[in-house]
Amino acid sequence: MSHEQIAEAADVAVGTVYRHFPDRELLGGELLTGHVDAVVARAQAAAQIEDPWESLVSFMVTGLEIRVANRGLHEIFLGTTRGARLATHSRERIAPLAARIVDRCHQACVLRPGVGALDLAVVPIMIGALGTSARHTSPELWKRHLAAILDGFRYDGGALPGSTPTPDQIDQILSSPARSNWSVVPRVLRRRARRRAFSPGRP
Predict the structure, then answer these.
(1) Among residues 41, 61, 73, 136, which one has the fewest Cβ atoms lying within 10 Å of its Cβ?
(2) Highest CATH level, class, for 31-198
């Protein structure tokens, strides 16, 4: 994680970061703990909502709102930065809340059979990447696609194909080299668009 990303995530000047925190890992933990605590607090509040489905929707939406608005924080939660210890600690705090919400939804028969808490863990990987990439051009786009995914999770009498990912599979997804390159895609597309603009007829 760069000093620039840390500065963006913590909402401070880059110069302040360089002057006072030469160690980026310690800096990430120091400055981003409050932001991570805010995500956890929202998850805790969502878990207290009486209606099981509303609880699940609030859990997903409110947590992603913070992450989409803060690219550095999103990278922290993915565990791809030097704040990996903070990311692991935050996920350990959120995981029991997600499991409780999913259990309540199954008891109320509002969630499709076979959907587990770790299925929810995959959603921010996808939607977070979309939200952080499109936040300046289409800031509400991630909400549209999150709603579509959640509608797919709703109970309709049929099970989803495949199975809920295991914790090891989630870790492998987060550490995948392909996943770390997702944020590069928008920049590549922008460069290609600029080349086409200056070179008519070029593919």
Answers:
(1) 136
(2) mainly alpha
